[in-house]
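General statements about sequence and structure are easier to judge against a single worked case. For one protein, we set the task of working out the structure tokens from the amino acid sequence alone. The sequence in question and its structure tokens are set out directly beneath this paragraph.
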Amino acid sequence: MAEKLKGTTTVGIVCKDGVVLAADKRASLGNMVLSGNVTKVFQIDDHLALAGAGSVGDILSLVRLLRAEARLYRAKVGNEMSVRALATLTSNILHGSRFMPYFGWFLIAGYDEKPGLYSIDMAGGVTEDRFTAAGSGMEFAFAVLEDGYGEDMKLEEGIKLALKAIKIATRRDVFTGDGITLVTVTKDGYRELSKEEIGALLK
């Protein structure tokens, strides 16, 4: 199973006016690249998102479950789940499945009264963060984030920092690569940057 855990770098950054999630697009098994066009960042609700590092099948399965739970919550309560509530729900699901676990590390991000970011391991351990990274290239990404993060960072700065972190991980980690997915979540909702936008920012 350890072979399935190789690959991916995901990054999350909390800014004054929103939160950024970014990930590369490579899926690998051992030393073999299986795909160069894998989505690892997902919308869960209007103001909620998830990034996953690990087994693609397990990540997709959890995303489907969380989307269903978010819709059910909205139908019952009449409004969207908070970022903390989604993180708690994810933690409970992962902890309850720890003997047959989801092989992944998950970043939960969103915006309710303010931007929020949580890192959750496969056993359900939760950490609230201002910035974080997960996956095989996380050491390289963390070095960039530690050096570049500021408490008063605006969204535009957070986008550039996230792209830089993934770009450095792509250069140094053989299991990371093949492009970048980047999304923002603000009071206006979830938005994925286009390939052209990302390309322009990387130049």
Notes: DSSP finds five helices and twelve strands in the chain. The helical segments are 56-77, 83-96, 138-148, 155-172, 195-202. The longest helix spans residues 56-77. The radius of gyration is 16 Å.
